[in-house]
Design brief:
This protein is of the alpha/beta class. It contains eight helices and six strands. The protein folds into two domains: 38 residues; 210 residues, Rossmann fold (3-Layer(aba) Sandwich), CATH 3.40.50.410. The termini are far apart.
């Protein structure tokens, strides 16, 4: 009887030891898994994008064919800060273009980098929050907010080739990068296209007539899946009617995009 009790006791002790080992091994496996899940994503030093590629794409098109008045300039400066601090998520690519009189001179973005992320939520156990914040400020936030000084012009231009710039934005950013994630186009403009072939200053534009014209057909582009947010510079209120806005809604719809927000910027 004593031998049986001793054997049973030994067996229970062995089971407890095995159970303890299993718990330790599971804890170690969980810790290793947590480390690999939580460790910082590798970032490309040149683009600041995740090594695996950007998670989404923000493109900003700034119309500077007319000088911004004081109020509009203040609104634009705040818009740049919002892009850097709140709107462009970590890991998303930000491309900024200028819309000038000669679109051949502004075909490439003035700025193009990913938001590398701030120190918020970063742990000293697997990263360096101080260096992360410094990199964000130095290589992303400061260059973005300083674009105000580069983009603002003092003299009005004779032309405003909006359609051509939208085509270039589509080709050189959305189509070229082909990012498999959310795509957003932010536009600062009065949306009054003005070239020798087509001008909205000559009367209210009818989209059906425009789309059927030779210029309308060659001005169409592809912006598949892009959400468009318009900061509508109210420079010529008599021309910037509901009909004119409807023209652009249909233009973007035909391009495969959707105008999701219109924010009037008066002054």
């Amino acid at each position: 009887m004593r031998r049986t009790n001793a054997a049973e006791k030994k067996r229970r002790q062995e089971l407890r030891t095995i159970a303890l080992l299993v718990i330790v091994l599971l804890s170690m496996a969980g810790g290793i898994g947590w480390y690999f899940l939580q460790r910082p994503t590798a970032i490309d030093k040149l683009t600041l994008c995740p090594a695996s590629g950007p998670l989404g794409h923000y493109v900003v098109l700034v119309d500077n064919t007319d000088p911004y008045n004081f109020i509009q300039r203040q609104a634009f400066a705040q818009g740049l800060k919002a892009l850097a601090d709140k709107l462009v998520p970590e890991g998303y690519l930000l491309s900024v273009y200028a819309l000038g009189e000669d679109f051949t001179q502004t075909a490439k973005p003035l700025f193009e980098k990913c938001n590398p992320g701030t120190a918020v939520g970063k742990s000293e156990l697997d990263s360096n929050p101080t260096r992360i914040q410094e990199r964000f400020e130095r290589e992303f936030r400061e260059p973005v907010t300083q674009l105000e000084n580069v983009l603002m012009q003092d003299k009005p231009a004779d032309k405003s080739p909006i359609f051509e710039m939208l085509q270039l934005v589509a080709i050189n950013s959305f189509q070229s990068e082909n990012i498999q994630g959310p795509k957003t186009l932010v536009v600062y403009s009065d949306m009054l296209a003005n070239t020798s072939e087509f001008s909205m200053f000559k009367g209210q534009a009818d989209f059906d007539g425009f789309a059927a014209s030779a210029y309308g057909q060659k001005s169409q582009t592809r912006l598949d899946g892009v959400q468009v947010k318009l900061n509508y510079l109210m420079n010529y209120p008599k021309l910037q009617t509901r009909k004119q806005l409807a023209f652009w809604e249909r233009y973007f719809e035909k391009a495969g995009a959707r105008l999701v927000a219109v924010t009037p910027v008066e002054g």
